[in-house]
Amino acid sequence: MNRTSIIALAAAAIFAGIGLGPSVASAGEWLRADIRADKRDIRADKLDLRRDRVDLREDYRDLYRDLRSGRLGTSRDLADIRRDRNDIRSDRRELRRDRRDLFWDRRGF
Fold this sequence. Notes:
Blueprint: H1 3-69, H2 74-106
Helix pairs in contact: 1-2
């Protein structure tokens, strides 16, 4: 190789390094922000799951009270229980997805 081609390759490498430098640095910032967002989502999903479980326990308590006393509100209680179970199932699914996303984000994917 002659001198001009070596200089041209060195110049191309310098320009490529200058162009890639900021994007690599911003990728690190983006990754940390994504991890923080995933952790925040996990905390929110855990809180939603806890609230739904409390609601489910209250609905079961209301159902058993209605059955013991002979009230006619059991169909409404059963609908509430079914809705709370579906909410718990969807919250668990979201929690699993957020945990999986956090797992892969920590590995850089």
